[in-house]
Amino acid sequence: xxxxxxxxxxxxxxxxxxxxxxxxxxxxxxxxxxxxxxxxxxxxxxxxxxxxxxxxxxxxxxxxxxxxxxxxxxxxxxxxxxxxxxxxxxxxxxxxxxxxxxxxxxxxxxxxxxxxxxxxxxxxxxxxxxxxxxxxxxxxxxxxxxxxxxxxxxxxxxxxxxxxxxxxxxxxxxxxxxxxxxxxxxxxxxxxxxxxxxxxxxxxxxxxxxxxxxxxxxxxxxxxxxxxxxxxxxxxxxxxxxxxxxxxxxxxxxxxxxxxxxxxxxxxxxxxxxxxxx
Length: 278
Hints:
- The chain is of the alpha/beta class and 278 residues long.
- 47% of the residues lie in helices and 23% in strands.
- It has a nine-stranded mixed beta sheet with strand order 3-2-4-5-1-8-9-10-11, sandwiched between helices. Strands 6-7 form a two-stranded antiparallel ribbon.
- β9 and β10 (201-207) form a beta hairpin.
- α7 packs parallel to α8 (167-173).
- The radius of gyration is 35 Å and the shape is globular.
């Protein structure tokens, strides 16, 4: 019964996080899920069924059953996006939807309303959409997740210049705000705003199973199985080189001894030539 906002730059894992939620929410309550369906409002054409199949297979779930419980609504403009949300009540009741995703919630509003002259109208319609999203989550007892884009603040000379789009309208409406950052192949999720969670950071990665915890048992097992194989190979190579050195050593000594004998013993014909005749 809350709205969670996830914002960050491109490629930080927002859509991958939503794909992972589509699979994990269908688990039973004993396994940490909600045992429900998903309503996915796609505004950027980033939903990929192939990614759902790979995440479901990695988590030991049937991909066909997982895809059957995901309802995807493609929004083409901001008015269409708002209309989909307004008419989502009967769909949520019929299919037992427990997760409502808007990816992204602000992208179409940002593209259609340009300049400062249209800022007031954009913020009013965006305020209506975000409040309706949180109201539906509270009415139908489901979780709501909205991804948000970022912009660069030019007046920031020190620190992180990225700021979420939407201003105070989105900031005050969302219950939880999570900031995704890229750090090489790793990702950092920081809790920016929460009623009862402390402001802390968590490191995760993106893999075949979606969002992966770096401290999981799977990562530790792979590291343990890889390291002994490398040490065994190195030991066998050193033994082979030593055996070659030991076998080649007597041959080299024999050659040196033959060479010294040939150099030290003079030839009799040379001695005869050097002795003068009397």
